[in-house]
Amino acid sequence: MAIHDGHRQRMKDRFRKEGLDHFDELHVLELLLFYAIPRRDTNPIAHALLDRFGSLPQVLEAAPEELQKVDGVSENTAVFLSLIASVTRYYLVSRGSNTQSLDTLDKCGAYILPRFCGLHNEVVYLLCLDAKCKVLSCKKLGEGSVNSAAVPIRKIVETALQCNATTVILAHNHPAGIAVPSADDLYATRKVAEALRAVEIRLQDHLVVAEDDYVSMTQSGFFHPEEYYP
């Protein structure tokens, strides 16, 4: 016990002095486990988690029930580890919530991207802006399997109208793919643009997100708003 206590204190002191920059994944995970498993050597458990899931991000993004399949990982420990990715996403979203104006597509992308941090399922968001590009809302409209998150066009239009939006930006992720629009994405974008045009709301862009990257359909030439809003 004394040996483990000494090791824990040395790890904590190192973190307080140096931060995590010089820690490898194993030691970061071991340090986290100190706070969920108070009376056990966490090094073997950290090894087992990395062996099973492959990397620290994959451990932190794993479902609690999958984490519990590793020897030594209790329900409490599994929930604690799963909480970290959700807290990180919450922190990133909260940090950007004070943005005054999203007057460029790059600013819109930076604002939306954190909402997809660590997600395994496909999710659709709608960012609603007023005439001065101030944020009215950024709502999750749907969540589906890894392959699909179908959202009725009517729901998109209703959400934009309820917010009194002048301009909207659609965003969804490809959890198991790359940030390149599919044929279905392009078709859906055109249909949404047509529906929004009928109520005098501009669809400015559709962002496709994969991990920490995204593609703007407008900037990449996949979607041309001026065709719908001359």
Write a brief structural summary.
By secondary structure, the chain is an alpha+beta fold. 44% of the residues lie in helices and 16% in strands.
Detail the poorly predicted runs.
none
Largest sheet: 5 strands, mixed
Shape descriptor: elongated
| Helix percentage range | 40-55%
Keywords:
5-stranded mixed sheet; 9 helices; single chain; alpha+beta
Description:
The chain is α+β, with helices and mostly antiparallel strands. Helix content is 44%, strand content 16%. It has a 5-stranded mixed β-sheet with strand order 2-1-3-4-5, with helices on both faces. Helix 8 (153-162) crosses helix 9 (183-197). The protein is elongated. The mean pLDDT is 88.
List the helices and strands and how they pair.
Layout: H1 2-18, H2 25-34, H3 43-53, H4 56-60, H5 64-67, H6 75-95, H7 105-112, E1 123-129, E2 135-143, H8 153-162, E3 167-173, H9 183-197, E4 202-210, E5 213-216
Parallel strand pairs: 3-4
Antiparallel strand pairs: 1-2, 1-3, 4-5
Helix pairs in contact: 2-3, 8-9
